[in-house]
Structures are given as structure tokens and as C-alpha cells.
Amino acid sequence: MRAVDIIHKKRNGGALTNEELSFLIKGYSQGDIPDYQMSAWAMAVFFRGMDAGETACLTMAMAESGDRVDLSPIRGVKVDKHSTGGVGDKTSLVIGPLVAACGVPVAKMSGRGLGHTGGTIDKMESMPGFRTELSREAFIAQVNDIGVAIVGQSGNMAPADKKLYALRDVTATVESIPLIASSVMSKKIAAGADAIVLDVKTGSGAFMKTLDDSEKLAKAMVEIGTQVGRRTAALISDMDQPLGFAIGNALEVREAIETLHGRGPDDLAALCVALAAHMVVLGGQAADLAEADAMLREKLRSGEALAKFKQFVAAQGGDPAVGDDPSLLPEAPAVVEVAAPKGGYVHAIQAEELGLAAMLLGAGRETKDSVIDYAVGITMRRKVGDPVSEGETIALLHVREANAAVQEVSRRVQQACEIGAERVAPSPLLLSIVTEQGVQRLAN
User: Fold this and answer.
1) Where is the signal peptide, in residue numbers (predicted)?
2) Which of 156, 305, 375, 381 registers the highest number of CB atoms within 10 A of its CB?
3) What are phi and psi for residue 200, nearest 5 degrees?
4) Which residues pair with 339 in a beta bridge?
5) What predicted TM-score, i.e. pTM, was given to this entire model?
6) Could you report the per-residue pLDDT of 229-266, keeping only the tens digit for each?
């Protein structure tokens, strides 16, 4: 078998076999197939695409290129949740304990943030003492004991994907649905979950900017999961504005805690319950979404979800008192108000711009080696559709000191908030549900 023949076949629109894809990924991982041949193959896939069977085979080849986590010692159906990345997305901090409180084990591996998107691991590490590295034995024991553990991803999980992504990034082949879908799912499958719920973001602050493209990506990932024996569902959620109001690590943990107390932002609470409902159904603890929804709301109302959060924090070395006293989290020494440049109604909030602004304050990473300041970030005061008066505070910047660089960030935040004379309605939060039965569009 030769790489050039596989490239030629895909270039001409042929469907590759499992053996051909395994040969290609194994050869590239081991250094036997050079970058220039893999680049040619990636470009052929970019233009010719892959069918569902090919994409599933590619996914498994990448999942098998490194470590795979065996979660079989954990009792019950293990359900994982993955977000394609957004601004202010702190759902895992709510969903993990909430779903565990319903009897579904959550054994989750999460990543760090880069660029305008935040990472769950960074947010959890803003809680003093919280450990995001556990041994396999401790990880499994914790999930069996309290129902939830969230740790950082293994350094050798799906290494072929990591190598291929770096190549795609410099060869203009990132925006390929089969390659994106296999990249995400290879890591989820390697992480060992029995079922997977995907939160596919769409809009200005997401990687996928249009609903059509987001549905194509969600459908491809659900098909992969189904083909390889994982029950999989996807929700497509709006990212035309930040989720909730807080952007930045400790600020987002505080907002997640408020949500577990039942007083968080409406959009964050609604998305957490919607995603968690699918997890509870796939985990076999509810017959349908309506039953799951009622169960989840009762866990929030009764305080059981909050109690599970405290258990989770304590188990991983943090202070459970943070669940009742978020002032124990890091706090920035200075707060700068951002004023509305004119009155009217908020027409749009450019989520990506706000994510980049938070990164400039130190809340995110510009490169993988950047050091994060857990205390800094942005708290928005308005959502799309809200009225605003000229000079009114539309955001708060939580900073180390109010210097010239912060004033530049303030201007960027002002520019990210578009204000017009007429009232507008915000986009619906939930746009589509994708299952193995197909795509159900909830909003046009």
C-alpha cells in the first residue's frame, strides 16, 4: 500500500477503506508518511469530502493512535458532554454535578482555553487548591463514589489528531466538516464514554458561523458516534453573544455557582438543563426529555445539585465553602466601568471580540505558553434587545490596574456592543437538535 495511491484515489472522489485510512494515520503518526503527502491528502478531503463510513474509520484510526481510557470499572452508563467552544461557556461546571445528582456518572476530560474561547480546566483551577490531574485509579474511584470527576486531557490522547490538526492549520484545510468532526470525536471516543452529548455553537463567537454549517458538523459527529457504537446527540446553540454575563475564569465559576443556587442567568440555566436532559436520557435515568427536565429542575430547586458541586470540589482538593461563598474565589483589585457611547437598544454583541478583549486583560491565552490571571475578565450588564441610555454602564472590566492598555480594551468592548434606535429580538438560544434520526430545527 502506498500513500500516493490513497491520495490519488481521494483526489478523484473515491471512498477510502478502513485499511487505507489506518495505513495513512499510522504511517503519519510514526513519521513514515511525510507532511507534504499528508497535506495533499488533507486538501483532497477538503475538496472531495468523506462519507459517514470513511469519517468513522478516520476517527477510530486517530483514537487508536494513542492512549484510550477504559472506564468499564465505573458503574452505569458514562455520559460525556463536549462544546465546540464559545465565550462565557461555563456549562460543564453546572452540568457535571447536576447530571451526577440524577444518578448518571460523569467521567469527563476537558481542555484548556486558547484564544477567544475559555477552557473548563482553567476555570476549575481558579478555585484555590482544586486539582485537575488525578491518577486513573483515583479518577475512577471518585466517579464511583460521588458520580462526577473532571480532569485535564491526557497528553497522549489521539496524538495523530494533534499532529494532523497542526498540519491543517498551516495548509488552509481546517474548515473541512469530516476533518473537524473526526478531530472532535476521536478525543471523545478515546476518553471512554458510553454516550456523548455535543453542544455545537453557531454565530459570531463560534467556529461555525452559520446554522447550516453547524448542522452539517453536528450531523457528521452524531453519525460518527452512531457508527462506532456510542449513543450520541447534539444541540446547536447560539453564540452570537456571550453565554451568561461573565467572561473570565473565576468570574465564570461564580456565575456557575449562582446558577446552581437557582439564580443564574436565564440563558445559561436554560442551556445547562437542555444539555443535561439529553445526558440523563442517554444515561438511562429518564424515559424522555420531559421526565429528565422535571428531574433536573427538582435537583436544582432542592439544592442537591449544589451539594453535589461541593462534594466534587472537595474531592479534587478545593474548598467546598466556595459553593456558598464565591468571595473565596480570586478577585481583581480594580473594576473599570464601560459606558454606552449612545442610547437606544443593544442590537448585537460580538462575542468573539469580547473573548479577545478578555484575553488581552489576561483571562485567556494568546499562545499555549501564556500565563492566565484567574481573577480578571469582563462582566456584561446588557444582552441583545435590552434598552440602554447614553453613558450607562454596559460592562465591567475586572483588572489589575486601570492603565492605558485597559482603556484600549474598554474601547474594544464598546465597539463590540452595537446599539441602534429600534428594539430588536435576540436570536433563540436553542436552534436545532441532531440525533441519529436526523436534524430537528427548532428555529428558523
Assistant:
1) none
2) 305
3) -95, 115
4) 393
5) 0.92
6) 999 999 999 999 999 999 999 999 999 999 999 999 99
